[in-house]
Design a protein that fits this description.
90 residues; Alpha-Beta Plaits; four-stranded antiparallel beta sheet
């Protein structure tokens, strides 16, 4: 059973964040995460929204607990704790 992570996060500068996010694609893929969508909020341009798919909750948990992810988020300009919702895909 797969999991979809619906993520919203405040960033300092969306364009700078997006470039760093794209550069981190190999690390996400190596962790088993698959991007479903990425974009910015219609009214709040420095709020990013993304959807990531994982084959299991265990893979998602391992990815989210990764020190590399925390470092990547900090260097990309994530300004606050992300809001993450988990959807079990039947």
């Amino acid at each position: 059973m797969g999991v979809l992570l619906l993520v919203s996060l405040q960033v300092k500068d969306y364009s700078a964040w997006k470039a760093r996010y794209e550069a981190n694609r190999p690390a996400r893929e190596a962790a088993g995460m698959v991007e479903r969508y990425v974009g910015r909020d219609y009214k709040k341009g420095n709020v990013a929204h993304l959807g990531l798919a994982a084959p299991s909750m265990e893979v998602a948990d391992h990815f989210l607990a990764s020190p590399q992810l925390l470092d990547a988020m900090a260097s990309a300009g994530v300004a606050d704790v992300p809001e993450i919702r988990f959807v079990i895909v039947d």
